[in-house]
Amino acid sequence: MSFENAEKHRFAITTPLYYVNDLPHIGSAYPTIAADAMARFQRLQGKSVLFVTGSDEHGQKIQRTAESLGRSPQEHCDLIVEGFKSLWDKLNIRYDRFIRTTDDRHAAIVEEFFQRVWESGDIYLSQQQGWYCVACEEFKEERELLDDHYCAIHPNKQAEWRDEENYFFRLSNYQQKLEQLYQDQPDFILPATRRNEVLNFVGQGLRDFSISRRNLDWGFPVPVDPKQTLYVWFDALLGYITALLDPDAEPTLDNALSKWWPINIHLIGKDILRFHAVYWPAMLMSAGLSLPDRVFGHGFLVRDGLKIGKSTGNAIDPVPLVDRYGADAVRYYFLKEIEFGRDGVFDETRFVNILNADLANDLGNLLNRTLKMAQKYCGGHVPDISGEEIAADNFLKAVGSELGSKVAQAYDDLAFSSACDAILTSVRMGNKYIDEQAPWALYKQGKQADVEQVLYSVLESVRLAAYLLSPIIPNVSTQIYQQLGYSADFADTRLIDVSTTFQNHQTWGILPAKQILGEPHPVFQKLELPEESS
Ligand code: ME8
């Protein structure tokens, strides 16, 4: 494979590296679910994928939380990281790398990177005065704060006045280069609303920002002045690079960048857009490195108008949600219900209704009733007909032939909700088609060939829907595939090379004639609200 083809064949995606001040909440699960769906989709496309997630462990927020709990910061992080990893397992998140910013190898990468930026003359010592929100780990302009200097993102937290000598990064040097970047690569920041926010911010003029702190122990020492500690964000962003190192590779920038750089997509929330779309590319330019392809800033899950969060104190615990309803249900709700990029709410009644309507009724019932008919009318195997033999004007064939590419485009655009809508529309058409064609009546009339055409078309449409939904609901898709007679496990993408096993499965019409079908049983049990909320 040529270098260029190898590049095209690879796909690297990151979630934010989560602060481990507290256990993950539903807002931490949200981008991770989205990144996992995207990674799974790219694997289905035959790409070699690196899916990076991890934890951001330094800084004042974590140091203070650990102190308040009587733990050392490292003990605290070790404990909380386990909570993240176990949630990712529960949610069927198949990440390839979990980077912790307290890893020794990360220290080496940060030091080398700092050195490059230092040598390019972009770091200097100066006085930092301003309001600092520890929950955001960010200096705020007065106009960004609420009354009495409370943070707009964490209205229960007051920003603190700081006046100290710090090292600064010369962001102002990169004003023009960044503006050029946004112009040359309009897709660098997505969606368009986020791009506009960044253009406005940069258009107001960029100011240098401090990249070190005094009076903070929990972090890496500044290589040129160990009395100062590196600002948590300077170290955290570099976690994306450290994560690319092969497990036994020497921790050098060259090694880290050799295979997976540049990263294709950084998936982040809109609160950390500036760091990723402004500071990060400027830091990379300063170090003489190429830039990631895209930064996608999604919206917030909100409750009572506020971002759900650990620091805000309005978190929803995803663990009982997954325990009660299952991983697929949680994954499906957030990706289907909320247009990726916009804010959304979690509403448990709506959650139950959507899941029951889409997965239990429309998709599950369609498979179940069709399989039962195939048992009765076709001896328990796929009708003896090929997709090619089905007439081109067959309603489901016409819809199915367009579906794969339409949904692939939606995934590529991270438009998960459009992908689900298109797939579920095709499923509803399947239900309508079978009602109209009434194969039970055709059977009574002795029209066996017609019965077989109808059942084949429906089974094949359900298969295609299951395949295209597999990045989102891998367990349900696996069950559907198994009942259609395949040996498949979409949930465990590490064990099988899905794209090779399922070559051409994005196309309508590939279900093999006479394949032995499995026993019909419901692929998605109807959900019920807990007693107290129904
Ligand atoms: O910002 N709705 O970590 P973090 C949607 N360590 N997404 C939400 C959310 C909500 N209510 N709450 C959190 C940090 N998130 C840094 C990142 S990256 C090098 C360093 C998501 O744990 C959102 O994507 O506070 C947010 O950006 C991310 O969690 C990480 O939040």
TrEMBL record:
Listed Pfam families: Anticodon_3, tRNA-synt_1g
SUPFAM superfamilies cross-referenced by the UniProt entry: Anticodon-binding domain of a subclass of class I aminoacyl-tRNA synthetases, Nucleotidylyl transferase
Domain of life, per lineage: Bacteria
Keywords: Aminoacyl-tRNA synthetase, ATP-binding, Cytoplasm, Ligase, Nucleotide-binding, Protein biosynthesis
Record-annotated Methionyl/Leucyl tRNA synthetase domain positions: 12-144, 146-371
Family annotation (HAMAP family): Met_tRNA_synth_type2
Free-text function comment from the UniProt entry: Is required not only for elongation of protein synthesis but also for the initiation of all mRNA translation through initiator tRNA(fMet) aminoacylation.
Protein name per Swiss-Prot or TrEMBL: Methionine--tRNA ligase
The organism of origin for this protein: Phormidesmis priestleyi ULC007
Taxonomic lineage of the native organism: Bacteria, Bacillati, Cyanobacteriota, Cyanophyceae, Leptolyngbyales
